[in-house]
Design a protein that fits this description.
The complex is a heterodimer. Chain A starts with 19 loop residues before the first strand and ends in a 23-residue tail after the last strand. Chain A contains 23 helices and 20 strands. By secondary structure, chain A is of the alpha/beta class. Chain A folds into 3 domains: about 20-190, Rossmann fold (3-Layer(aba) Sandwich); about 210-365, TPP-binding domain (Rossmann fold), CATH 3.40.50.1220; about 385-560, Rossmann fold. The longest helix of chain A is centred in the middle third of the chain and has 23 residues, at about 360-380. In chain A, the strands form 4 sheets. Chain A has a 6-stranded parallel sheet, with helices on both faces. A 6-stranded parallel sheet of chain A has the order 11-10-9-12-13-14, with helices on both faces. A 6-stranded parallel sheet of chain A has the order 16-15-17-18-20-19, with helices on both faces. The radius of gyration of chain A is 24 Å and the shape is globular. Chain B is of the alpha+beta class. Chain B folds into 2 domains: about 5-80, Alpha-Beta Plaits (2-Layer Sandwich); about 85-150, Alpha-Beta Plaits, CATH 3.30.70. Helices cover about 30% and strands about 35% of the residues of chain B. Chain B has 6 helices and 9 strands; from the N terminus they run E-H-E-E-H-E-E-H-H-E-E-H-E-E-H. In chain B, a hairpin with a 3-residue loop joins strand 6 (about 115-120) and strand 7 (about 120-130). At the A-B interface, strand 6 of A face helix 1, helix 2 and helix 6 of B. The complex binds thiamine diphosphate.
Chain lengths: ~575, ~190
Amino acid sequence: MDTLTAKSPEDKTTDKKAEKISGSQAILDILIREGVDTIFGYPGGAIMPVYDALYNYHKYFNHILVRHEQCAAHAAQGYARVSGKTGVVFSTSGPGATNLVTGLADAMIDSTPMVCFTGQVFAHLLGTDAFQETDVINVTSPVTKWNYQITNAEEIPEVLAKAFFIAKSGRPGPVLIDVTKNAQTQLFDFKGYEPCEHIRSYRPKPLIRKKFVEDAAAMINEAKKPLVIFGQGIILGKAEKEFREFIEKGGLPAAWTILGLSALPSDHPLNVGMLGMHGNYAPNVLTNDCDVLIAVGMRFDDRVTGRLDKYAKQARVIHLDIDPSEIDKNVKADVPVWGDCKDTLPMLTKLIHKKEHAAWLKKFRELQKQEFEKCINVELNPTTEVLTMGEVVKVINELTDGKSVIVSDVGQHQMVACRYAKFNQSMSNVTSGGLGTMGFGLPAAIGAKLGAPNRTVIAILGDGGFQMTLQELGTIMQNKIDLKILILNNHFLGMVRQWQDLFMEKRYSFTDIESPDFVALASAYNIDSKRVESREFLKAAVQEMLKHKGPYLLEVKVGKENNVFPMVPQGCSVSEIRLS
Amino acid sequence: MKKDFTITVYTEDRVGMVSRISNIFSRRKINIEYLNTAPSEVEGIHRFTIVINESLEVVRKLLRIIEKQVDVLKAYSNTDEEIIWQEVALYKVSSETITEKVKVERLLNEYGARAVAIRKDYIVFETTGHSEESKKLIKFFEPYGLIEFVRGARVAIIKNSHGFHEKVKEFEKKQPTENFETTEVEDDKAVFSL
Ligand SMILES: Cc1ncc(C[n+]2csc(CCOP(=O)(O)OP(=O)(O)O)c2C)c(N)n1
């Protein structure tokens, strides 16, 4: 791929007069100007003019032909999550567009910047039930930060500038641009491109109120038992350093949501672990013991809070968030610190006193010990014959030294991966948090590898979730994507089975799932693969996978009916967390 | 406690705004009692007037979500005491019965109704006011055969508002000036309010 200086192949620099170009060409020129070099997509009738233009621009873009539009969206998400750039998707109208919906919903709830282009029927056919016409604007309105239908090529420069600005700024999110076919082919005077910096009706960052920052600092300074809980806001705000300085000065124990994971190194002394349903014992229990709860860039999802009327009732709550609609949404904030935490954290750090909170931290260590004996040790150093998911993750930790990108799907393996994977670099954990989309893992890992080509990317998948998007093995094959696919096969839809086990008297209603021979399947796609069923071969097999040049699939057979603990049963308070 | 709130929303004049805004309510299964949308006094900006029956807490959350929409400039909420509002209503009544049995004159005085169309077979009356009054008039007409009735959505003027002209100028700026950062009524956590 060439480096990108916005010169389209068609651009004849000798001829200075504004030339008429097609809408499709303008779209691609603008993508170059926006620094886009990777596109995930799938062609079809209504977007063919764009693909035709792409034929001339192939040197400027790495276009990845996925096997399903949903996966284009998830790949764009994975790409965005590890690179901090905006993911870009092309798809056709009708079924192509509706196939994007799951990915849009996932990106919306997990605040992932993405710009999706959908083709649309000719403007004069809108509303006639034309072939492959879907009202994609209305279908996607609840799952996009912004969407817009372009029916005239003249609109392209301004609308695309807005699209990229909106997707990336403030609380990021997906934007969908629907382009009718006539606008794609229409020739127009392209007068140049101006990136957007301001939209009068849109405030990406609320004004910081100094008083709230001061109130928050005073509250933190008074606290005897402060607890920080953080989410993806730190990563999206690129505020990892500011965050560390904040907790280190205040001696503040910090626990994370699964989207905040990797923002703080796993072995940081103030990292007290994971929050929520399958999180660590100490931060869950002590949420109901702390005196000041400081939430940073997180949104109090119900999987994190458990029962709300018994959540941190004793504590005063400080909430730092860029999105004002998150404040008071689930948990009432005593002090709402609006703003980008990149800006507000240093303001707070300045005002707080240097402290240690040694006795309070000791409480975390004590509970950690209990959890280690009852859960962690059993999972990581099992004495049973069957393999556990945790010991597989432990081997990965040993062999990768916390440097790889871990992409997980949804289910037990996801919780185990998030609980046990070690990270010493931010933007390293990619998972579908808010939507819990099975099938997310494999395509997101493809995107992650393209977004972080120099890093090892490991997709940790369940046998169920893998089968939701396994067609992407074709994408991996065709594009030779050097991805490590690890299937933790328990022959069940494990997480649902766990609930049936614990709360529905083991009535395993449709949760046993048969799978094809994954090794044979991989070889059909020309992907090297192996299956491991016993402990003695585990480490060597993971080693081989990691050393292998190019894509590799490793299936590990794990205990069929192992459960993930600790667990906060639904409807229970976080301090009612069960260790077994 | 639930009560009527009148939500005023200023948006860009754009296709699809009604659905984006109404989605916010329908997603939460909140019924919209009245919805009026029309161009505001400022060119290019539409004004929505939405009436819902909800608690203050829910209304506050809704306002923030409405304002979060990229094409929304500003949203306000007000109780009935804080606004002057009017609703138009039209009544089509058979001319025969009404002229025979009722003194149209009396009707006009008592209910503040106005005859806007007088035909051989029917008369159309109009009232502008509050819904309690129109409800009374409907009751009154019932025995004489009310053929058709329609009520317009509420429109409301906010008593303590200074209008939107000046505010738009602040929105045009990248950062609004500090003194525009005032506190909203009943919301000590207002983000920034213009
Ligand atoms: C698209 C979708 N459908 C259904 C679910 C509900 N669900 C959550 S976890 C899970 C089981 C996942 O099984 P598997 O992929 O084998 O992973 P495991 O839990 O066994 O690790 C299911 C069905 C979901 N999250 N997403």
